[in-house]
Each structure stands twice: as C-alpha cells, then as structure tokens.
Amino acid sequence: MKIEKVMHLAQVLKDGEKTRALENSQPTKKKHFSLETLFLDFLTIIYSHWPGYPFPTAPPVDPFAKIKVDDCGKTKGCFRYGKPGCNAETCDYFLSYRMIGADVEFELSADTDGWVAVGFSSDKKMGGDDVMACVHDDNGRVRVQHFYNVGQWAKEIQRNPARDEEGVFENNRVTCRFKRPVNVPRDETIVDLHLSWYYLFAWGPAIQGSITRHDIDSPPTSERVVSIYKYEDIFMPSAAYQTFSSPFCLLLIVALTFYLLMGTP
C-alpha cells in the first residue's frame, strides 16, 4: 500500500476518534470504547478502501456431470440415434438406463431447444403410453415432467414418479438425468419398469415451457421390448444415414456399378 493511502486511512481513523470524543463529552449519555473496538474499526476502514475488496458471493452450483458413453453396454444400457459413432453430445437423440437400488436412472439428451422424452409402450405405436419428458422452459431451466399419450396428444400427469432430477440446456441441446422407481402402485398412466416395454424416442420444440409436436413424423422406437436388467448399446442410424443401407438401394448400387463396368451395347 502506498504511503499516501496509509496516511489517508490514519486521518480517517483520527477523525473518527475526534467524533467519538465529542459524543462522549455530551452529558446525556456516556460511551466507552476499548482498544479491541478501535482495532476492529481500523480493519473495517482498511478493507473497505482496499482495491478488490472481496464481497461475499453465492456458493457455486454443482455442474451437470457429463454422460459417460464408455459405460454403454457394460454398466448401463444405451440407445443412440443419429450419425454413426455419435455420443451423448452429438447424437440426434441419446438415452441410457441403469439400475440403482430400487430405482432406474435415466439419462436423456437431444439436439433441440425444447424437449426430449422416452415413452414406455406395449406396442410401437403412440397412444396409451407412459412418458417421461425433460422440458426446457423460458427461464432456462430443464424440468422433468410426466405425460400420458392419449392418442396423438400428450397429456401432462400431475403424479410424477421422477426423483433426483437434474438437467441443463447447453450447445442447443436439452440433457437431463433422473431416477424413477422400478415398482409403482398400479395406475393406468404409470407402468412397472420391471416388465419389458417398447421404448419410444421423441424430441421437439417447446413454447413457453409446453411441449409441441415432435421434430420428425415417425420418431424412432426400439426394435424389441427392453428389459432394464439387460444392458445393451444399440445404435440406430438417422434418416440421413439410412439411404444406402436398405436392400433396395444396395441392389441399385450393384446394378449401376455393373452397368458402368460393362458399358452399353
């Protein structure tokens, strides 16, 4: 600290002592000051004049732990939809599940600024399905909500089995993590996860925190029923990467290649 600043602080302290002496001279009320009080006042003056005085700040918020794809097929089951080799941060849609005690922990992520969801269905069709969705609202929060598909319409259900929920919206992706009990009391809108179900995967935009129609007309589904006790790592190519994988397209490529090699008569 510069000499001028120390002298300034000393003068401030001296003026404060004069003021206290004047107050003590008043006959109405007598005050007593100890050396400890003066020392504390001196420290307060120094810290209040010191550049970069550290004001109390709110405790930091724990960051959202990234989804580990290396565990897929080993300690948790995963579904990936998108470009071959994609992960939880690059797939169009990603879901993982694993058993933790009496709960199932789900992790969902999708390339959207609205919502990402998984539905539990007795078939591969939308309607009569138990749905868990992570919704990005206008305040920047990601909330886990419970829905029930009534035909093509998702109705929000107030009874929400989700617990320990957390979510984040980063890089134009909605990502969340939550737990849900394996066994629940029988209810039309909530299924028991110890049974096997087809999984319906969907994502789309939201308006003021309310979900709207999913991004694609025919969202992907699991090819077969899923058991939470069996961990697999299943990849499903998105439409952009399905073009040359169908039998018809492969046959067409072979025919064109043969035609070019043989030439025309």
Question: Secondary-structure element order, as H and E?
Answer: HHEEEEEEEEEEEEEH
The number of helical elements comes to 3
Class by alpha and beta content? alpha+beta
Mean pLDDT: 81
For the secondary structure, the number of strands is 13
Radius of gyration: 32 Å
Helical content band: 10-25%
- What strand line-up does the widest sheet have? 8-9-3-2-1-13
Question: What does the largest sheet look like?
Answer: 6 strands, mixed
First and last CA, distance: 96 Å
CATH class of the domain at 77-243: Mainly Beta
Shape descriptor: globular
Question: Which percent band covers the strand fraction?
Answer: 25-35%
Per the CATH scheme, the topology name of the domain at 77-243 is Immunoglobulin-like
Domain DOMON: 91-206
Organism: Sousa chinensis (Indo-pacific humpbacked dolphin)
Transmembrane segments: 244-262
Keywords: Membrane, Transmembrane, Transmembrane helix
Q: How would you characterize the overall build of this protein?
A:
Helix content is 20%, strand content 31%. The protein is an alpha+beta fold and 265 residues long. The N and C termini lie far apart (96 Å).
